[in-house]
Design a protein that fits this description.
16% strand, PyrdxlP-dep_Trfase_major, binds pyridoxal-5'-phosphate, four-stranded antiparallel beta sheet, iron-sulfur cluster binding, Aspartate Aminotransferase, domain 1, 2 domains, alpha/beta, iron, 15 strands, Aminotrans_V_dom
C-alpha cells in the first residue's frame, strides 16, 4: 500500500493505547494545534468582543480572524459566515430561518431521505408548528438524489431545498450544483448540510451555487459545540436566538470566542491538508482496507453506496453472515460504527441504508469504517486482520 505519511505524524495523545480509531465521521479528536490556539481565549483573553475598552480588542480581532479562516475554506466572504453552537443549530437556523422569513401562506420545503436527523426533524417541526408542507425525495441504490425527482417536486410554494453534501454513513456525494441550479430556476433557496464534506474534500459555495451551508467543528478536528452557517449575501432569515445584536442579529448571545478560534484554526489546517494531498492519502488507506477485507472474506463483502461518488475517508460495507453490532463487539481492537441503531437492546436497520434499498439483513450487517488525520497503514493492517478473523465462523 503506497500511502504518504500524514501531515501530522505525531500520534494523537487521545488515541494512545486505545483501539484503532475508525470513527472519524462520528467525531474527530481535537487537533492539538487547535487546542493550543483556543487556550488563551479560555484564560487571559476573557474580554467581551462587544465591549468598548481594551479588553475587547484581542477577542474581537480573533473572532473576525476566525470568521475569515472559515470563509476562506469554503470560498465565502467573511461577513457571510455566522458562528453557531453546533451543526444541528446551523441546520435549524437555515431551515426554520428561511421558512419563517418567507411570507407564502403554505411554504413548501424539499429534502431527501438520507439527511441527518438535524434536518429531517427540523422539517417535521416546521410541518407541525408552522404549517409547512414537506416533501422527502427518495434516493437510488447509491444513496443519490435524482435531479429529475427534484425538478418534479419543485413548485411555486417551494421556499427551500435542503440536501446534504456528503452522507455521514456512506460518504455518498450528492449532485449539489445540479440541485442548486434547479432550485434557483423555481425561485427556491438551496441549503446544504456540509458537516461531513468540509475539510474532507474541497467545498466552494460559489462552485456549488448554494445559498446556505452548514459547517461542523467536531467533524474537522475542532471541539464539539461549535459550527457555522454560510448565508449568501442577500438571503433573509428569521433569527434562531433573539436578544442582543450579535452575529448580525441572527443568533444572539455573547460570542464564544474560544470555540470560534478553534473552528477558524481547524479550517486553516483543513485547507493545508486539502492542498497537500491528505484526501488521496486517506483514499489509498481506505481502499487498501477494502481490498484486504474482500480478499480475506471472498464474495462476502459488499460496498454500500457508490465507489466513485464518495468521501475519500469512508468505507461502509456489509459482510455476509455477520451482524455489524456483533462483529464490533468481538473486535474490541477497533472503534467503528454499525449500520444499525440500538434502542433498548434491539437493533434496527439504519434508515439511510434502508432508503438505499438494502434489506434488513444487509443493513444490519453493515459496518462504517471512517478514517482521518491520525490513521496509519498500521491501523489499517490491524483493522483488516481483526475484522477478517472476527468474521470467520
Ligand atoms: C451530516 C451531519 N449533519 C449534522 C450533524 C450535527 O452536528 P452537531 O453534532 O454539531 O449538532 C452531524 C453530526 O453528527 C452530521 O453528520
Amino acid at each position: 500500500m503506497t500511502a504518504r505519511p500524514s501531515l501530522h505524524t505525531i500520534p494523537h495523545p487521545g488515541l494512545a493505547g486505545g483501539p484503532v480509531y475508525l470513527d472519524y465521521n462520528a467525531t474527530t479528536p481535537v487537533d492539538p494545534r487547535v487546542a493550543e490556539a483556543m487556550l488563551p481565549h479560555l484564560t487571559d483573553l476573557f474580554g467581551n468582543p462587544s465591549s468598548s475598552h481594551p479588553y475587547s480588542e484581542q477577542p474581537r480581532a480573533a473572532l473576525e480572524q476566525a470568521r475569515g479562516q472559515v470563509a476562506a475554506l469554503i470560498g465565502a466572504r467573511p461577513r457571510e459566515v455566522l458562528f453557531t453552537a453546533s451543526g444541528s443549530e446551523a441546520d435549524l437556523l437555515a431551515l426554520r430561518g428561511a421558512v419563517l422569513a418567507d411570507d407564502r401562506p403554505r411554504p413548501h420545503v424539499i429534502t431527501q431521505a438520507t439527511e441527518h436527523p438535524a434536518v429531517l426533524q427540523t422539517c417535521h417541526a416546521l410541518q407541525r408548528l408552522h404549517g409547512a408542507r414537506v416533501t422527502v425525495l427518495p434516493v437510488d441504490g447509491d444513496g443519490l438524489v435524482e435531479p429529475a425527482a427534484l425538478a418534479a417536486a419543485l413548485d411555486e410554494d417551494t421556499v427551500l431545498v435542503s440536501v446534504m453534501a456528503a452522507n455521514n454513513e456512506t460518504g455518498a456525494l450528492q449532485p449539489i450544483s445540479d440541485l442548486a441550479a434547479l432550485a434557483h430556476q423555481h425561485g427556491a433557496l438551496l441549503h446544504c448540510d456540509a458537516a461531513q464534506a468540509v475539510g474532507k474534500i474541497g467545498v466552494d459555495v460559489e462552485a456549488l451555487g448554494v445559498d446556505l451551508l452548514t459547517v461542523v467543528g467536531h467533524k474537522m478536528y475542532a471541539p464539539k459545540g461549535v459550527g457555522a452557517l454560510y448565508i449568501r449575501d442577500g438571503v433573509e432569515l428569521e433569527p434562531v436566538v433573539y436578544g442582543g445584536g450579535q452575529e448580525r442579529g441572527l443568533r444572539a448571545g455573547t460570542e464564544n470566542v474560544a470555540l470560534a478560534v478553534a473552528l477558524g484554526t481547524a479550517a486553516e489546517l483543513a485547507a493545508r491538508d486539502l492542498a497537500s494531498g491528505e484526501p488521496a492519502r486517506l483514499a489509498a488507506l481506505r481502499d487498501g482496507l477494502h481490498q484486504r477485507l474482500a480478499h480475506g472474506l471472498p464474495g462476502r463483502v459488499h460496498l454500500n453506496g457508490s465507489a466513485e461518488r464518495r468521501l475519500p475517508n469512508t468505507l461502509n460495507v456489509s459482510i455476509d453472515g455477520v451482524l455489524g453490532h456483533d462483529l464490533l463487539t468481538v473486535a474490541p481492537e477497533i472503534a467503528a460504527s454499525t449500520g444499525s441503531a440500538c434502542h433498548s437492546g434491539t437493533h434496527t436497520p439504519s434508515p439511510v441504508l434502508t432508503a438505499m434499498g438494502l434489506d434488513a439483513d444487509h443493513a444490519l450487517a453493515a459496518v462504517r469504517l471512517s478514517l482521518g488525520r491520525w490513521s496509519t497503514p498500521t491501523d489499517i493492517d490491524t483493522a483488516a486482520t481483526t475484522l477478517i478473523k472476527a468474521s470467520i465462523p
